[in-house]
Amino acid sequence: MSFATGLICRECGSTYPAEARYSCDFCFGPLEVSYDLEAARASMTRASIEAGPASIWRYGALLPDPGEEPVDLGAGWTPLRRAHRLGEELGLRELWLKDDTRNPTGSFKDRVVSVALSSARRLGFSTAACASTGNLATSVAAHAAAIGWPSVTIIPSDLEKSKIAMAAIFGGTVLGVEGNYDDVNRLCVELVAEHEDWAFANVNLRPYYAEGSKTLAYEIAEQLGWRTPQQVVVPVASGSQFTKVAKGFKEFLELGLIEGEIPVLFGAQATGCSPVATAFYDGAEVVTPQRPNTIARSLAIGNPADGPYVLDELRAHGGDCGSVEDEEILECIGLLARTEGIFAETAGGVTIASLRQMVRRGTIDPDKSTVAIISGHGLKTLDAVVDTATVTATIAPTLAAAEEALRFHSLVAAS
Amino acid sequence: MSVIVRLPSQLRVLVGGAGEVAVEATTVRGAIEALEATHPGIAPRVLDDRGALRRFVNVFVADEDVRFLDGLDTIVEAGQTVSLVPAVAGG
Lengths: 415, 91
Hints:
The structure holds 2 protein chains of 2 kinds.
Chain A: E1 4-9, E2 15-16, E3 31-35, H1 37-43, H2 46-50, E4 80-82, H3 84-90, E5 94-99, H4 109-122, E6 127-131, H5 135-146, E7 151-156, H6 161-168, E8 173-177, H7 181-194, E9 198-200, H8 206-211, H9 214-223, E10 231-235, H10 240-254, E11 264-270, H11 275-282, H12 307-316, E12 321-324, H13 326-340, H14 346-360, E13 369-374, H15 399-414
Parallel strand pairs in A: 5-13, 6-7, 6-9, 7-8, 10-11, 10-13, 11-12
Antiparallel strand pairs in A: 1-2, 1-3, 4-5
Helix pairs in contact in A: 3-13, 4-5, 5-6, 9-10, 10-12, 11-12, 13-14
Chain B: E1 2-6, H1 9-12, E2 20-24, H2 28-38, H3 43-46, E3 57-61, E4 64-65, E5 81-86
Parallel strand pairs in B: 1-5
Antiparallel strand pairs in B: 1-2, 3-4, 3-5
C-alpha cells in the first residue's frame, strides 16, 4: 500500500488532496506528493522491499497510490554496473553506471510514466498526453497503448527521426510543433486548460509523474547493498529527475533503510543548453532561459521548471554542474560504448563528458564512490553517430580482400 | 501616476473579477502595495514573508520580465501595464 497522503506546495507548504492539480492556488508554487513517513517507517523493511516485484513497484509504499493495479510495462530495476574500465579511463576508484537504457521503451521516462498513468487511471482519466523532447512521448504512447487509451503526444517537429518513429509506432496522435521544447511546453499548459479530461503526464499529473524518478535513488542504494554512494551524476533537463533523485536518497535515509550520508549530486548539461550550469556559475538565484542549440535533444529544455530546486540542491551539498560541447558528447558516447559495452543516447554522452569534466576540475573526488545515471538508449539518437560509427572497410567477399583490409587497419592502428 | 495591473485568473476573485485594475504607483512594489491597500490579500500571494517576489510569480512591465530589470524597484511609467503571471511548471 502507498503511504502517500496528498499534495503539498514546495514553496509555501499549503496542502491539497491527491487530485489532478499541479500548482498552488495560493502562491503558484509547484506541488509534490507528501507521505506519512512515520507510518512507512513502522511497516517498511529491506525484506518487505526485496519481496516485491523486479520493477519500480517494489517501492510502491513510497509512490503515489496506483489504484487497483499499476499501469506497468516493467519499468525500473535496471542494472547498476561496476564500471572498472571506464573508471580507470577517467581516474575514478569506484565508478558505477545506472543503466537506464534497459527500460521497456529505452529510457528512464518509463519510471515516471508508469507512476503518472497509474495515478491518472485512479483519478478517472482515460486519455494520456504530454509535452516531450521525444523519450517521454514514446513512453506515454507505449503505456497508453498497453491499456487501450488514446494518447496525444506533443513534440518539436524537428526531432531525431528515430525518436519520432518510436513515438508514432504505438498508434497515438503525435503533434509535431514548429518550435522548440519550450514552445511545446507553453502550448501544453494552454491545452491542459482546454482539455481538463486529458492526463498530461508532465503538466497536470506532474506531481505524480515526478515521483517516479525517486526510484532511481532507491534502486541505486538497494543495489549497492543498502548504502548510499558518495557522489551521483545526473543529467539535467527540466531538473525533475535531479531533484527527485535527491529526495529518494533522503527518504531512504530518513526511514533508516540505508547506511551512509546524503550523496553529493552533480548535474550534467550540454553547453548548447546549459541554463542551470550557467546560473550556478553566475551565482544567480534565478535561471535565465536559453534558446537551446545542442545535439542532446532530450536535454534541450531552455526554461527548466525545476531549475531553482537544482540550484538549491547543488549549493546545499557542495555539488557542481558540468557543461559540455557537442563534440565531447559524441566522443563520450563512444568512450562509454568502447569501455563498458553500453550504447547511450546523447544525454548519456552529456553525463559521461560532464563526469570527466568535473573530475578534471577537481569538484568530483576520484577516491569517492560515484554513480553516473545513463538515462536513455543509443538507438534513440542513431542520427548523431551514423556518420562516424560505420564500417571499418568495405571489401570484396574474398579471403584475400579480408586479409588485406585487416592488415591495413592493424598497420594503421600500430602506427 | 496611474498604471494598470493585469491579474491572472487565480487572483481576480480578490478584485471582484476584473482582469485589470488601475492604481497610482511609480514602481512595481508601489503598484502591489497600492493594490493591497484597496484589495487586501493580493500582496501575500505574490510576495513572500520577507517581501521578496515569490519564485513562481513572474512580473512583466511592458512585456519585460522585472527579474532582468530592477525587480520590485523597476520603474513603471504612467499608462504602462504591470502583468502578474504565474510561472507554470511543465516538462
